[in-house]
């Protein structure tokens, strides 16, 4: 185990030739040709696969009193039906899960899985599932967060953090802001619905699934089915988007595994698109209140952020206030997060959990505050930038260049030419507005391992359970290995997403890229040591790995020659030390947006977007840029259209597909530019890299809201910024 | 999906004869809507009669100077037809505002008119819906329901849904007629105005078509000229159903026609509203949307319709 227990010094990685270069995805051709097999497409791994189709609860809360399956069981092709009452209550798979996935007669949310019908074909299973009859004893529940808000917005008895005397400082501040903001529930709406193929043999369970965290899935399956972890194998080589809803097991895996065990055949289950919204997880809706007090010179003296979010009992909701604790300076501080227990489906992590909705509110408030202060919103943010934790001056940021993001962005965007007065610039019927917002997202890292095999052919095989959820893991891990061993990228092959491979950090919380490359780096150094041993050299650091050769005092040998004597294998992992906790490792950015608002119809059309990101060393500018522009697209969705609207009478999300839950289409997205600051965070990882996958989303929606204000003079504090919020205030 | 029998017809007479023999049969052409609904268990016809082989895929000129559009003409072909683009640009614009290129390639003229509503409660078979399951109730009209996509006028206590077609809105403004054939050989030319029904107490019937009656063509009268514009407002820039859409035909003398989509169970047009065109968008909408019963989540559709018409009048001027 390599311990990363102090900041990285100067290293060979600083002189990297492959890492940091713009390599296109090595898995790209497989994906565009259909050769990359996703979980539901593993047709050839097992004979006799059967298809399961879920039966979903049609009440939000209550109990199943009867289930009649005789008619369904008699349908053509049906092999068996497994029902939740007959299976009985099952343990919750993993601490991170909130709602039960299957088992027992209690219904805690709409579209909870209550049975699975298995048949020879998908169509037969679906037809039979429709014939299962269920009686319920329904209970009423709480479904409307707004009812809790008037009381909770005032309640600061149990703060997340309190520093100084916020109330007094706010009352004394010459310039003050106090507003409420709201963000709706969001659906992950990833392209590939959850899917699993499960197979039991000799008491061992193997699943081919679509999951971001192979180890967590293995742990979850082991605890659910009473197995040891080595009796479970999880294979998840390709994931068609996850955004957090595939961090933990979902019902597809439990249904498939349960049915496969009971029926004695491999069973695959994909959640139908209409089930994704209510059966799986969503980003909680938030109601937020922000108060900021400042001196006339723009220095913040008091800041408070209170938020309320929905969760099932026992869940964590959406902590929309945490980033506000560390983003801006100010002596007197108060942060409160209330959980609003609701009987809606499970709210859980979605891309940039907390920061995404938190910054949607905070960065509007900062814009409003700048206006009150008659300051440039860029200058106001810079005025309140900080190099230390605002809660603890002895806790520094490891590497923070937020002000530089703003100034570089302002220069590149031509910010000095912005319309100073709202509603002052026009292009025909289009009212033009510019907006800016800051971005903040943590830079976590997690233990991650890998095994490297230098094969007799001279090719290098990288093996780790790490997943590629569309992010580019295959490519950056190949680059890392190639860099450390001095091989061309083409000589490296990467195998991912299999719990039989060395345990990795997995993909989530934008920790994946930084952690997994560090793990491959550790394994790469271990392999260099093994190569040195084969050469009879004591100290691998005396060797130079370059262009497929290893060179020492005795001359150079090609790695292929060396491995021809027998495969050379090394495995190692990186572990991140506590020194990181004595500082704040995070990522920063600034978003700039120009848009037009049609003065009559109120339609919004973006004209250009710019992101400037400070995320340490960029491992691959092509895949990193893809992550950031993808985040920006998601931010456009959050700003303009995405809303999992709640039927507060029945307690569910009526949107059932990607027509009812809209995400942006190409026509919504203008020119996007991304600038990465040339930074390297020595406290992040040995490669000095941090994630960008979530940073790209943070702040985008607020930049759009601020541009909408700049265009029209109408301040909208409720998302999405659909036209009913401002139509009546536009010129007639 | 419920098992169903599948039949191919080779001409219209055979198709309607088959339909008469097979109660509960549905015609299928592009299948862009019906197949989805069958997969979701919303529609479960016992028999499908495939009409793609009927040969009704031509656009021909009528003696009256109009166009006769075969029911199987694809949305793509219709919107791209030179005569349509020249003489009925409203129709081209409306079709191009709907769906996606792939869907328009498959969707047919007759099928487009027969699209079912996109009300989310219609789509969830666990929900009461009088359109899907007559007499079961209307989930959209109960407290707490999501009402933003629903209609504001022409709706009833039994049903609040809208008709989703863009093409039909243009056809309504163009005074098109729907030609049909029944098994007894009877042919009807149904003005589009009366082709789609208001829901009243029977929202399960979207149109006045009788069981087994087949749309064979749509007739456009002689071109009416004028500036013809269609604008569809939605939450994203493309590939979404309308919040409000407005079809406008404006003559040089300021008279013209207006039809709306996204607000009602059918393409929405009133002669008295057309007559108010010379007095501007507000005067038109006062008449066109008089009697509207907006819901908490969709009252904005009324000012939005007025503003969108104002934008089109400005563009047409």
UniProtKB/TrEMBL annotation, chain B:
Q: Which InterPro entries match?
A: CO_DH_flav_C, CO_DH_flav_C_dom_sf, Diverse_Substr_Oxidored, FAD-bd_PCMH, FAD-bd_PCMH-like_sf, FAD-bd_PCMH_sub1, FAD-bd_PCMH_sub2, Mopterin_DH_FAD-bd
Q: Known PROSITE patterns for this protein?
A: FAD_PCMH
Does Methyltransferase show up as a keyword for this record?
no
Single GO MF descriptor? FAD binding
Record's superkingdom? Bacteria
The yes or no answer to whether the keyword Transcription is present is: no
Arranged from A to Z, the UniProt key words for this protein are: FAD, Flavoprotein
What is the name attached to this protein's record?
A: Xanthine dehydrogenase family protein subunit M
Highest classification ranks of the organism: Bacteria, Pseudomonadati, Pseudomonadota, Alphaproteobacteria, Rhodobacterales
């Amino acid at each position: 185990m390599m311990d990363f227990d102090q900041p990285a010094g100067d290293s060979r990685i600083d002189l990297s030739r492959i890492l940091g270069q713009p390599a296109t995805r090595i898995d790209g051709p497989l994906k565009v040709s259909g050769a990359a097999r996703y979980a539901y497409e593993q047709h050839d791994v097992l004979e006799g696969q059967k298809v399961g189709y879920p039966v979903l609860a049609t009440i939000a809360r209550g109990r199943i009193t009867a289930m009649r399956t005789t008619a369904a069981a008699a349908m053509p092709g049906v092999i068996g039906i497994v029902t939740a009452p007959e299976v009985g209550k099952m343990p919750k798979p993993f601490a991170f899960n909130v709602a039960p996935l299957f088992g027992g007669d209690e219904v805690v949310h709409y579209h909870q899985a209550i049975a699975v019908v298995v048949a020879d074909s998908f169509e037969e299973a679906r037809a039979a599932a429709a014939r299962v009859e269920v009686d319920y004893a329904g209970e009423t529940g709480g479904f409307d967060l707004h009812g809790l808000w008037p009381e909770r917005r005032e309640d600061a008895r149990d703060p997340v953090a309190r520093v100084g005397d916020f109330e007094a400082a706010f009352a004394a501040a010459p310039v003050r802001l106090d507003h409420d903001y709201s963000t709706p529930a969001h659906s992950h709406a990833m392209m590939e619905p959850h899917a699993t193929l499960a197979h039991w043999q000799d008491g061992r369970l193997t699943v081919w699934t679509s999951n971001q965290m192979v180890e967590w899935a293995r742990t979850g399956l082991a605890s659910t089915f009473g197995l040891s972890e080595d009796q479970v194998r999880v294979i998840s080589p390709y994931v068609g988007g996850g955004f957090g809803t595939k961090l933990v097991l979902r019902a597809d895996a439990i249904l498939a595994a349960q049915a496969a065990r009971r029926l004695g055949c491999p069973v695959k289950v994909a959640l139908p698109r209409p089930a994704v919204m209510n059966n799986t997880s969503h980003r909680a809706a938030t109601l937020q209140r922000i108060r900021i007090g400042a001196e006339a010179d723009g220095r913040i003296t008091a800041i408070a952020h209170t938020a309320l979010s929905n969760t099932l009992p026992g869940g964590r909701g959406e902590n929309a206030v945490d980033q506000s604790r560390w983003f801006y300076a100010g002596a007197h501080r108060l942060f409160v997060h209330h959980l609003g227990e609701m009987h809606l489906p499970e709210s859980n992590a979605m891309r940039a959990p907390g920061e995404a909705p938190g910054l949607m509110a905070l960065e509007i408030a900062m814009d409003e505050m700048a206006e009150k202060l008659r300051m440039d919103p860029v200058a106001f943010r810079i005025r309140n930038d900080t190099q230390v934790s605002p809660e603890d001056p002895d806790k520094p940021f490891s590497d923070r260049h937020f002000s530089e993001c703003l100034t570089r962005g302002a220069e590149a965007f031509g910010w000095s030419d912005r319309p100073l007065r709202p509603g002052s610039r026009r292009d025909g019927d289009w009212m033009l507005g510019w907006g800016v917002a800051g971005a903040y997202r943590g830079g976590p890292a997690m233990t991650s391992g890998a095994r490297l095999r230098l094969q007799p052919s001279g090719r290098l095989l990288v093996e780790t359970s790490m997943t590629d959820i569309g992010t580019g893991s295959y490519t950056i891990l190949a680059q890392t290995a190639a860099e450390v061993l001095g091989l061309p990228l083409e000589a490296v092959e990467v195998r991912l997403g299999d719990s039989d491979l060395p345990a990795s950090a997995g993909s989530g919380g934008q920790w994946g890229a930084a952690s997994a490359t560090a793990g491959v780096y550790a394994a790469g150094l271990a392999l260099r040591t093994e190569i040195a041993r084969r050469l009879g050299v004591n100290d691998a650091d005396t060797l130079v790995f370059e262009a497929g050769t290893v060179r020492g005092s005795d001359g150079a040998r090609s790695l292929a020659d060396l491995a021809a004597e027998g495969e050379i294998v090394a495995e190692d992992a990186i572990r991140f030390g506590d020194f990181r906790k004595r500082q704040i490792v995070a990522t920063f950015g600034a978003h700039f947006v120009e848009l037009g608002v049609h003065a009559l119809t109120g339609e919004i059309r973006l004209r250009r977007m710019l992101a400037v990101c400070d995320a340490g060393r960029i491992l691959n500018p092509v895949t990193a840029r893809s992550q950031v522009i993808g985040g920006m697209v998601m931010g456009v969705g959050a700003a303009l259209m995405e809303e999992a609207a709640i039927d507060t009478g029945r307690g569910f999300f009526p949107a059932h597909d990607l027509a009812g839950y809209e995400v942006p289409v190409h026509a919504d997205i203008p020119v996007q530019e991304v600038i990465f600051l040339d930074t390297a965070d020595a406290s992040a990882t040995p490669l000095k890299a941090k994630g960008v996958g979530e940073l790209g989303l943070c702040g985008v929606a607020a930049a759009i809201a601020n541009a909408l204000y700049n265009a029209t003079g109408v301040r909208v504090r409720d998302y999405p910024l659909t036209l009913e919020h401002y139509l009546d205030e536009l010129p007639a | 999906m419920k098992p169903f029998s599948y039949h191919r017809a080779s001409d219209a007479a055979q198709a309607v004869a088959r339909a008469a023999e097979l109660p509960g049969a549905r015609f299928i052409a592009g299948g862009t809507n019906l197949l989805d609904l069958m997969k979701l268990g919303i529609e479960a016809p016992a028999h499908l009669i495939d009409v793609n082989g009927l040969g009704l895929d031509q656009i021909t000129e009528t003696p009256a100077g109009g166009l006769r559009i075969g029911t199987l003409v694809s949305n793509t072909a219709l919107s791209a037809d030179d005569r349509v683009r020249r003489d009925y640009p409203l129709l081209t614009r409306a079709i191009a505002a709907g769906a996606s290129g792939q869907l328009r390639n498959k969707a047919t003229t007759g099928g487009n008119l027969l699209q079912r509503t996109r009300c989310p409660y219609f789509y969830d078979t666990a929900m009461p819906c009088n359109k899907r399951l007559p007499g079961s109730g209307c989930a959209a009209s109960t407290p707490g329901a999501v009402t933003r996509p629903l209609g504001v006028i022409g709706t009833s206590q039994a049903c609040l849904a809208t008709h989703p077609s863009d093409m039909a809105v243009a056809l309504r403004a163009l005074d098109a007629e729907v030609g049909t054939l029944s098994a007894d050989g009877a042919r009807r030319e149904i003005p589009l105005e009366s082709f789609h029904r208001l829901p009243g107490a029977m929202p399960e019937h979207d149109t006045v078509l009788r069981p087994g009656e087949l749309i064979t063509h749509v007739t456009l009268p002689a071109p009416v000229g004028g500036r013809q514009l269609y604008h569809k407002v939605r939450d994203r820039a493309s590939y979404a159903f309308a919040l409000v859409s407005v079809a406008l035909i404006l003559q040089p003398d300021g008279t013209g026609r207006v039809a709306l989509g996204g607000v009602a169970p059918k393409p929405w047009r009133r002669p008295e509203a057309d007559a108010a065109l010379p007095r501007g968008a507000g005067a038109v909408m006062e008449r066109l949307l008089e009697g509207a019963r907006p819901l908490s989540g969709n009252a904005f559709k009324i000012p939005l319709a007025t503003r969108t018409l104002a934008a089109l009048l400005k563009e047409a001027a």
